[in-house]
Design brief:
This protein has helices at residues 16-27, 39-51, 66-80, 103-131, 154-174, 214-225, 230-242, 255-269, 276-288, and strands at 7-11, 31-36, 55-60, 85-88, 136-140, 180-184, 247-248. With 293 residues, it is an alpha/beta fold. It has a seven-stranded parallel β-sheet, with helices on both faces. α4 (103-131) links the parallel β4 and β5 (136-140). α3 packs parallel to α4 and α8 (255-269) runs antiparallel to α9. The longest helix has 29 residues, at 103-131. The radius of gyration is 19 Å and the shape is globular. 45% of the residues are buried. Bound molecules: 1,4-dihydronicotinamide adenine dinucleotide (NAI). 1,4-dihydronicotinamide adenine dinucleotide binds next to α1 and α4. Residues 11-12, 14-18, 36-38, 41, 61-64, 89-93, 112, 116, 140, 142, 186, 188-189, 191-193, 196, 199, 224, 227, 293 line the site of 1,4-dihydronicotinamide adenine dinucleotide.
Length: 293
């Protein structure tokens, strides 16, 4: 996989996993087209990357703002052509149980994590196909795109299941054209995701969201802070792209939970009742690995 001199458009590129992917792209000799909602962090990320010798262009972008995204995509394609690597990574995590989620929990999470990702595909993939370059799409989902947590991440989990479904479908569509699609499904990664509400749009007040108790937030923070490094995630993502693998599951400790869930679905297909024992064990295992981001 020779990425030298090619372009990478990365959303959420100012922090965490997106920034680590940008650093990895820079190491591969790519031109970085970094998009993020957070202007200060974006400028600092670009400065650091340039200090390391990278070529970087920044775009202030809220991926949920379709009008702005149209303008950014048109500018990117006019100035640089279609990206060779499209990384739909920008995302937020907000804990909201299905039975108590507010309409704004749904709107904010789905508009960034699902619509923002969909817009990226709509606005870039046709140009990537037309360019004839057999490039790559990397979408950031989560381990909660493969299993569900009984601990209250219903809205987030729904958004990440959507990312997995979109990625699988897109992979099938693009494979005959020579483009490869991979989907990142990490467990905890030490990033700034616990403070996702720093990017809450002005029109959404905190009062409109499900609020987490201070101690619950502190627990989530310590869990996330003890996660693997974003650089390790970026390395695994690049290995998957090089080997043309589609799923990037960075946390093998969730293997039993994934298998148990699938066995329950297979049993249902055979018309067998779900095993309460297995489902309870699954819930318990996942709660022990909580919180899922
Ligand atoms: P982060 O908070 O460090 O980075 C997210 C970046 O996205 C930030 O730079 C933020 O400004 C940007 N962003 C947020 N909303 C945006 C919007 N509307 N438009 C454009 N940019 C926006 O968090 P992290 O962890 O690096 O998150 C990246 C992705 O990884 C997300 O999709 C998240 O759901 C996913 N993820 C994170 C995990 C973790 O444990 N950190 C685990 C599984 C998935």
């Amino acid at each position: 996989m020779d990425m030298r001199g090619k372009t990478a458009f990365i959303t959420g590129g100012a922090s965490g996993i997106g920034l680590a992917i940008a650093q990895r792209c820079a190491a591969e000799g790519m031109t970085l087209l970094l998009a993020d909602i957070e202007e200060g962090a974006l400028a600092r990320a670009a400065e650091d990357l340039r200090a390391g010798g990278a070529s970087v262009v920044t775009y202030r972008l809220d991926v949920a703002d379709l009008d702005r995204y149209r303008d950014v995509a048109a500018q990117v394609i006019a100035d640089h052509g279609a990206p060779y690597l499209l990384v739909n990574n920008a995302g937020i995590a907000w804990k909201a149980p299905a039975s108590a989620a507010t309409p704004e929990d749904w709107r904010w999470t789905i508009s960034v994590n699902v619509l923002g990702l969909g817009y990226g595909i709509s606005l870039f993939v046709p140009a990537m196909i037309a360019s004839g370059a057999q490039g790559y799409v990397l979408n950031t989902a989560s381990i909660t795109g493969l299993i569900v947590s009984p601990g209250g991440s219903a809205v987030y989990s729904a958004s990440k299941h959507a990312v997995v479904a979109i990625s699988e479908t897109l992979a099938h569509e693009l494979r005959p054209l020579g483009l490869h699609v991979a989907v990142l499904c990490p467990g905890s990664v030490a990033t700034n995701i616990t403070d996702a509400d720093r990017n809450l749009p002005d029109h959404v007040g905190h009062d409109a969201l499900t609020s987490a108790a201070a101690e619950e937030r502190a627990f989530t923070r310590s869990f996330v802070d003890n996660g693997i490094t974003p650089a390790a995630v970026a390395d695994q993502a690049f290995a998957a792209l090089a080997e043309r693998r589609s799923y990037v599951v960075t946390h093998p400790e969730y293997r039993d939970e994934i298998a148990t869930r699938h066995r329950q679905i297979e049993a249902a297909v055979r018309g067998e009742p779900a095993s309460d024992v297995a489902l309870l064990a699954l819930a318990k295992q996942i709660l022990n690995l909580q919180p899922l981001t």
